[in-house]
Predict the structure.
Amino acid sequence: MASALINVPKRAKRGDVIEIRALTSHIMETGYRRTAAGEVIPRDIITSFTCRYNGREIFRADMFPAIAANPYLSFFTTANESGTFAFEWIGDNGFSQTASAAITVE
Amino acid sequence: MRGIGAIVSALLLVSASAGEIPQQQRRSGYSFMAPDTKAMQDDDTSNPGMLWVLDGEALWNKPIGTANKACADCHGGAKASMKGVAARYPAFDKSLARPVDLEQRINLCRTAQQQAPALDYESHDLLALTAFIAHQSRGMPIAPASDPQLEPFLARGRALFMQRQGQLNLACANCHDDNWDKHLAGSAITQGQPTGYPMYRLEWQTLGSLSRRLRGCMTGIRAQAFSYGAPELVELELYLMSRAGGMPVETPAVRP
Amino acid sequence: MPGKDRSTRRYFLKAAGGTALAGAMVRITLQPADATPAMLNAAIRNVVGEASLRTGRVKLDIPPLVENGNTVPMTVSVTSPMTADDYVRSIHVFNEKNPQPYIGNFYLGPAAGRAQVSTRIRLADSQKVVAIAQMSDGSFWSASVDVVVTLAACTEEL
């Protein structure tokens, strides 16, 4: 079961700079660890995160094994219209997850 | 180096526990943390433990097993029905004639009521359900049940806490009653108060149970750790919860 | 300073081998060769190219003393008006001693309003972390901090 915790203000005034927080479940296995038996544990990380605001990309991140497990991101955007923030995480082994949050801009 | 040497000799020289921590000196592991780690716990949108709470809520409402029942079908909304429950666990189970912790209670419900297989210890789903249930008690004081049937188990848990064990020949009390204001290398020793389980430990990079933490401590003192679900672990948990009586539940806590 | 910390830790590990209690505090992990300052510089050049890299405008917030290297809160903020013709295009974060020098690349634009990104990173050891911002005019600005990562006591085996 994978889940994501998104924090976007439900309402904002036009022109407000708002903080967006996104937390998602993922092991972020680095590929550099070994089992007690000495075998390398294969890399399994999220490699990319994108946030779109009414379809337009407003923030993107490339992630490496140095990003901690259960990746957390906080970033900003200007609220200019009501609509939807769409979040997408893509990673190794076909990992893909999406989430969305609505905002009303007055 | 000199400081560490001093702690080592202090621990080795202590022959008997200096005694239990008075109520007014009880401190959550939270109070020993750096501001950044505190901030991670304080805000639900940055606390990674909340991911498990969220999953636990979904599991609470999902029908499972041959009985095709969800937790919610019997217990209703967890907000009301589970409030305060974690604060009084482990609790005595009549059918087993011994105390069970929250994880074991969930599994008893699954096997007996939902007729579903028990979940493995430290599995994502068991941690998620436990975290979701314990979260309903957040902010409430830990209030161990005053059940006379629990007394012999509580006494055994206390004895185990005071018992020196492992190759390092250390009792829990040697660190967590007698030296909680000192450090082991860069880490605060802390009082070992179980206020926020299951908790997100940065070292683990995941959520984990009190049993896992206790097993980690046992491995640390080079003792043979009790298996998950062992009655001794539950007795120790029972003593720890009574020792933390009155302290607020923090689930899901964040710790280094 | 980082060099000094490393030698202190080495000394501690060596000394600790002799006492049983200290054995409980020492984590033994198998790791490939660490990234080196040369790898860090190469990674930075990969992003910056031949452009000049200036110090300033970038602020890198990491606790100076980290409780656990597995999860280190980090915030990068860049001084910029964030207007259509003067904004931060991207932020790149690197480290010196993890198995690889890259931590993350973050792409923003004028609509961000504020050029600030926070995440949580892994640091395998006490080391230098570098943040670089590319501005809309193509210039690169940077900040670096030296972070001390403490060894966790009583770690579990994998």
Remarks:
- The radius of gyration of chain B is 18 Å.
- The longest strand of chain B covers residues 91-93.
- Chain B touches chain C through 32 residues (CB under 8 Å).
- Residues 102-114 of chain B form the longest helix (13 residues).
